[in-house]
Amino acid sequence: MAAERKKNREELLQAREKELDKIVAATSRKARPVKGEDNIGVRVGKFIDIEENSFSDQINHQSKFDAETVLDGLYIIISTSLYQETLCATDTVKADKNLSQVEQAFRSYKTVDLKVRPIYHYTPERVKAHIFLCLLSYYYVEWHMREILALILFDEDDWEAAAARKESVVSPAKKTEKAKNKSNKKRTSDNLPVHSFQTLLDDLATIVKNTISTTIGSKSFVFEKINQPTAIQQRAIDLLGISMICTQ
């Protein structure tokens, strides 16, 4: 990992210097040179040391970059209050890397899927209770649903194989061949269309209970009927273990 980080840093620095060299050349060329702080600043974006009619760029290898190099190959976790038997070092790193899922969860239950906003609670106890219920909703509604429905989603559904493909706990996740096939073909292994979680929810929302009234002879009848699910809807229903029976 240390060698990989060093290689990535050097490649990024070389690419950065190459692009900045073009801007330096543009400010010093004879034909139509780039002049003015504003014009040069637009070219550079985030800049250092811009003068009226020139631009120069130097990287201080003795400060920030050297400090970062010291940490190459290391993955630092500040601390955890859990015992080794509860959360070992590897699992601690995994938990830290999965913090992005917490951010995704907040976004999901506030705006995307559960849509619990706005919140009209003001006392600390009620705010805490509301957030706790929202997290429970996310955990039981979305997290478990995504895990159960992974076979028909673009999500990875062979977690053991995916974990085995990783070189280390901090290396980037690699898709399994099964997940790649789903992504490329847009079809499941049993030739059903693959959904994202949001599009599958939209598709399932088209299953409705209709109230039907009819007259036979002199008698009128009213009954309820659920529309026939499509193949992919039925697959989702089967995976979730949902019973679709009309009750009067």
Q: What structural keywords apply?
A:
elongated, 10 helices, two-stranded antiparallel sheet, 248 residues, mainly alpha, 50% helix
Structure, described:
With 248 residues, the protein is mainly alpha-helical. 50% of the residues lie in helices and 6% in strands. It has a two-stranded antiparallel ribbon. Strand 1 and strand 2 form a beta hairpin. The longest helix is centred in the first third of the chain and has 27 residues, at 2-28. The chain is elongated. The mean pLDDT is 77.
| Order of helix and strand elements from N to C terminus | HHHHHHHHHEEH
Radius of gyration: 28 Å
Average pLDDT, rounded to a whole number, is 77
Q: Determine the strand fraction and express it as a percent band.
A: 5-15%
Largest sheet: 2 strands, antiparallel
Percentage of residues assigned to helices: 40-55%
Give the number of helices.
Answer: 10
- Indicate the overall shape: elongated
Per-chain topology:
Layout: H1 2-28, H2 37-44, H3 64-70, H4 89-97, H5 99-112, H6 124-148, H7 159-165, H8 177-185, H9 197-204, E1 209-216, E2 219-226, H10 231-240
Antiparallel strand pairs: 1-2
Please provide a brief summary of the model.
The protein has 248 residues and is mostly helical. It has ten helices and two strands, in the order αααααααααββα. The model has no long low-confidence stretch (mean pLDDT 77).
